[in-house]
Amino acid sequence: MFPLGIRRQRGATLIELMMGLAVIAFVLALGMPSMSHWVTMNKATSAGEFYAEGFSMARRQAVLHNAASRIVLSPNLANGQMDWQVDICFPVTGTPCNDQSGAWSTTTTAAANDPDGAAGFTSVFRAADSLPQSDVLAPSLVPDGASTIYFTSLGWVDTTVDARLTRIRLDPADRYHGEIPSVAVSVTLAGMATKCNPTVNAPDSRACPP
């Protein structure tokens, strides 16, 4: 017998626990597609910033080091997007800074003729692993086949380099039209990276530069 006013507390039965878990599982199952969709949208929105950061860094390093710089885009085999790497080079007589030159920095070694020697600038590599799959947001390079932008020590695009990259465009798959906007990142001759809308034309202020 329990004293008056005090009830014996009863534990939950196995059936009640199972019912509670079933309700939680049902709620989670409803929410997972929405969460997955939100993550995809968030990744797609950040894609333009990822490339704008790379273009801006390449220009900044050229000016900072009074050197030539370049950004090289390469395919990310995991998701079909484009990784990027920023290198610098210190041109001297007889050692030009071009694709065939071995004077560029790498991710492990400083450039030849770097004033800081072996402790100088090493290349910066960024993988596009955080971006959505290319069947969600497809990248394309302009002009087709180009993958590198070269900058002079003043931060201007080196126009002596043929077939230089001028823009990366990101377009959503058909099933995401209306949810994910097309976006492009263009680099002007002054070396400035600009996000723009490749689906509109001038005089619309959102249009990409010619």
Overview of the molecule:
The protein has 210 residues and is α+β, with helices and mostly antiparallel strands. The protein has a single domain (42-196), classed as minor pseudopilin epsh fold (3-Layer(bab) Sandwich). The protein contains 1 helix and 8 strands, in the order H-E-E-E-E-E-E-E-E. A 4-stranded antiparallel β-sheet has the order 3-2-1-5, covered by helices on one side. A 4-stranded antiparallel β-sheet has the order 4-6-7-8, covered by helices on one side. The longest helix has 52 residues, at 14-65. It starts with 13 loop residues before the first helix and ends in a 14-residue tail after the last strand. The mean pLDDT is 86. Pfam families: N_methyl. The chain crosses the membrane at residues 12-32. This is Type IV fimbrial biogenesis protein FimT. Keywords: Membrane, Transmembrane, Transmembrane helix.
Number of helices: 1
Q: How much of the sequence is in beta strands?
A: 15-25%
Summed over residues and divided by their number, the pLDDT gives a mean of: 86
The main β sheet shows up as:
4 strands, antiparallel
Here the CATH topology equals: minor pseudopilin epsh fold
SSE string, helix = H, strand = E?
HEEEEEEEE
What CATH first level would be assigned? Alpha Beta
Helix-and-strand structural type? alpha+beta
Supply the CATH superfamily name.
minor pseudopilin epsh domain
Overall CATH architecture: 3-Layer(bab) Sandwich
Q: How far is the N terminus from the C terminus?
A: 90 Å
Lateral strand order in the biggest sheet: 3-2-1-5
Give the low-confidence spans.
none
Transmembrane segments: 12-32
Organism: Pseudoduganella namucuonensis
Protein name: Type IV fimbrial biogenesis protein FimT
Keywords: Membrane, Transmembrane, Transmembrane helix
